[in-house]
């Protein structure tokens, strides 16, 4: 299992996906498993959205020793992060940073909302934020 | 709040104005193939539309309607005989009956989509620091207050509902159409003696009475074109929040307009 971050749009369509390989020992084939776990957590996220007013939902699901945490915006755009560490504050800071970046992507008039985010600048910045 | 528009707003307004002018000029130019098709379609729906028009405009323009009906009856008789030449002559008269051309519909659609994308983005951007909305009322209030202040500098004056999925946003002094005045021409009647200048607006605010200007049908039709972008804005903002709806806009008296949003229930 690899640390993975995904942005899922309003109609449950994935908009962005980034995997972070921490060590060389991790196999590439297990990236599908992390995506599967994230999508499986979407149901739980939907339930939590109805009860929770805040954007940041905290830890949503557990799988082995990996935790899934989520952040959902007003427009039902879900940022989902699958990590090993259980530090809530750092994930919250990460989500806020990525949210700022996402808003900048939206402001681009050529970007159609709920379409995949392909900007390499966005990708680079997200990876920088994650490494912190 | 000053009346002057920023440069960007001016550019947008000019481009919208240009598009609308081209729409009205293009609608008079007709292809011969299109006219033949339209003649065939229009003859079938002629009687239905006449009935609809009767129901709508009972007291106002009876004489004009009767004249139109007489013309239509003559046209129907002629077309049943099957004279192609007379069909082409009848086309300009049928124009009054057929509601909108394909070109107009296409442009209206594009204007609405411009507003839709604008509404989506502003909603997502403004809702940054606010908690997520749980109830429909909160969502409508968000559009009426926050988005309106962001885009137009003021809130919607009146927000009403019929508790059956219909919401009406009433703005008594809508910024985008506030400074429109109609010019003297053979087609339009000049009713706007008190043009909406800055002085008048200040006086209006002081005396708390707004001099609303009533308009003719043709003026209303032209003004209708300016309301498609705000309709799209409302629709986009609501869809970004999660409420799917259709929005229509009506302007009865010049600065005041009403946008009606009908919620689409997916069940």
From TrEMBL, chain A:
What Pfam families is this protein classified in? Sedlin_N
Supply one GO CC term from the record: cytoplasm
- CDD domains linked: TRAPPC2_sedlin (cd14825)
Give any single GO term for biological process: endoplasmic reticulum to Golgi vesicle-mediated transport
Entry-linked InterPro entries: Longin-like_dom_sf, Sedlin
- Give the domain of life: Eukaryota
The UniProt entry, under PANTHER family, shows: TRAFFICKING PROTEIN PARTICLE COMPLEX SUBUNIT 2 (PTHR12403)
Q: What is this protein called?
A: Trafficking protein particle complex subunit 2-related
Automatic annotation (TrEMBL), chain B:
**Highest taxon of the lineage:** Eukaryota
Region described as Disordered = 46-88
InterPro entries in UniProt: NO_sig/Golgi_transp_ligand-bd (IPR024096), TRAPP_component (IPR007194), TRAPPC6/Trs33 (IPR037992)
User: Member of which family?
Assistant: Belongs to the TRAPP small subunits family. BET3 subfamily.
Q: What is this protein called?
A: Trafficking protein particle complex subunit 6b
Q: List the source organism.
A: Anaeramoeba flamelloides
